[in-house]
Prior knowledge:
Elements: E1 3-9, E2 12-14, E3 17-20, E4 25-28, E5 39-44, E6 48-50, E7 66-73, E8 76-83, E9 89-94, E10 99-103, E11 106-111, E12 114-119, E13 133-141, E14 147-148
Antiparallel strand pairs: 1-2, 1-5, 3-4, 5-14, 6-9, 7-8, 8-13, 9-12, 10-13, 11-12
Amino acid sequence: GAGNVKAALDGNSIPVAVRSFRQDSHAEVKIVARGTAELTIDFVAGVRAWVPFLPLRIGNSSRGLRARSCELDGHIFRAELEGRLEEAAPFLLYTPWQIQRVSGGKIVSSKGNEKLFMVPASPESSQKNGGYKPWTFEVEFTQTSGTSH
């Protein structure tokens, strides 16, 4: 989700290639540095998603949240999630952007760039041997911007 990527080597602008993927973007620069050099990459920050690890005991089946896909379309982040959750599960987004709207979960806290959400337990999760159930989690952000290094 990062954009407007620029690179400089010792204060001089150099070419930077941005490789965009469905889930993130990568900046690529090629340099030859001798001695001491300073490489600066500036960009407008995007969004990084994280599903916290839920430890299992040996022999236990997985009951945690799964993120099947994530994408950022402008200022709307969408994740296709699935789970057989018996209770709400945490889902994290890291971004400097401010939240405007959430669906498929609720915001619990926002500290700096870390946004903690809880996604609800699936009504079907209480069924015995219930499989993973899919749903969509979506966050719309306000139209703010910021540059990072």
